[in-house]
Amino acid sequence: MTEHTQYLIDQKWMEYALKLAQKAQAIDEVPVGAVLVKGDEIIGEGWNQVISSSDPTAHAEVVALRDAAKRLDNYRVIDTTLYVTLEPCAMCVGALIHGRIRRLVYATSEPKNGAVSSQISLLELHDFNHHIDVTSGVLADQASDLLTLFFKNKRQLKKHKNHSE
Questions:
Q1: Catalytic residue from among 45, 61, 87, 110
Q2: Is 61 a catalytic residue?
Q3: Closest Cα to residue 99, out of 77, 127, 125?
Q4: Mean pLDDT of the 126-150 span
Q5: Is residue 86 predicted with pLDDT exceeding 70?
Q6: d(CA 29, CA 50)
């Protein structure tokens, strides 16, 4: 497969992950979406649900892994690619390693909590018994814009609320 063909495939699935991020935004969650793919088939999907489910582990990546594990009736999701709109945190990187995904593709970096390249590069540690290939930057501008607008709106609502009190 050529690099260009792989990029087009990555772009297709990241567009899908961005649609899932919009589902999170629609329920007032941080707009992050994730889709787990094997071959050309979706085996799991998720979006942030930490607030709506009162579950600090309900990040998009974990929700997608749980969905896939139930569908496959197996906690290992071997030979899969996870597409996620935001760089995973340390918890999610751990879940991806334990789930044995083959490849991680993320859109934009997470400067405060990113555990792939921003704050720490967990996947570059050589002590893990599983290696994950990483691609970053696929549709980064779209994912970043979605997050920026979400937090801008949150700040404006808070400011408006404080002025009306």
A1: 61
A2: yes
A3: 77
A4: 94
A5: yes
A6: 7
Neighbouring C-beta atoms of residue 91, cutoff 10 Å: 15
As to burial, measured by CB atoms within 10 angstroms (0-12 exposed, 13-18 middle, 19+ buried), residue 28 is exposed
Q: Compute the mean pLDDT over every residue in the chain, rounded to the nearest whole number.
A: 95
**One-letter amino acid for residue 38 of the chain:** K
User: Between 159 and 108, whose confidence is greater?
Assistant: 108
Q: What is the pTM of this model?
A: 0.94
Three-class secondary structure assignment of the chain: CCHHHHHHHHHHHHHHHHHHHHHHHHCCCCCCEEEEEECCEEEEEEECCCCCCCCCCCCHHHHHHHHHHHHHCCCCCCCCEEEEEECCCHHHHHHHHHHCCCEEEEEECCCCCCCCCCCCCHHHCCCCCCCCEEEECCCHHHHHHHHHHHHHHHHHHHHHHHHHC
pLDDT at 165: 62
Residues 6+ apart with CB under 8 A from 57: 50, 91
CB within 8 A of 79, min separation 6: which ones?
38, 102
